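In this section we turn from sequence analysis to structure. A common task in structural bioinformatics is to predict how a protein folds when a small molecule is present, because the ligand can shape the pocket around it. The inputs are simple: the amino acid sequence and a SMILES string for the ligand, here magnesium ion. Study the lines below before reading on.
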Amino acid sequence: MTRAFFFDRDGTVNRSPGPGYVLRWEDFYFQDGAVELLRWLKSHGWKLVLITSQQGVGKGLMTQATLDDIHARMQDQLSHRGAAFDAIYAAIGLDATEPRRKPSPLMIQEAQAALDIDLAASWSVGDKERDIAMGQAAGVGMNVQLGTDAGADWEVSSLRQLHDHLIRWERLMAA
Ligand SMILES: [Mg+2]
């Protein structure tokens, strides 16, 4: 069993595209501190799992191939810096037809089975209430809110702040 850190994508790993979708790689920008946080977690033994809703595919605004291409390029950039995700799960269907869509815990449960993850020892971070609700529904031990939606176990204002807290927390746990 291993612990994992579950990341939301848009608004967490990369800058939010606003009300729309990231439809091409040229519009994908890592958030400040994202690569550094991912690399640090990986070097401290965490599995990195991306859990994302990409309804733009279900709506016909982009193809599955385009979404795969965006993720391949993201992984290429991350792997050069020792920060690649171990697994990526995307819900592409529309609300009514997509049982895996957040806040359903199904994508986390798929990752748990594939990577033998200890969910109670795992963490999640996301920018929306549904990210927090998903993590809590799946039994993820700590669910961190980026920003100020309600209901999280913990709120941080930036990935850099989360990274600073984690470094201190690891020192406490190791002591
Ligand atoms: Mg988000």
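Helices lie at 34-43, 55-58, 64-79, 106-115, 129-138, 159-174. As an exercise, try to locate the residues that line the magnesium ion site and compare them with your own expectations.
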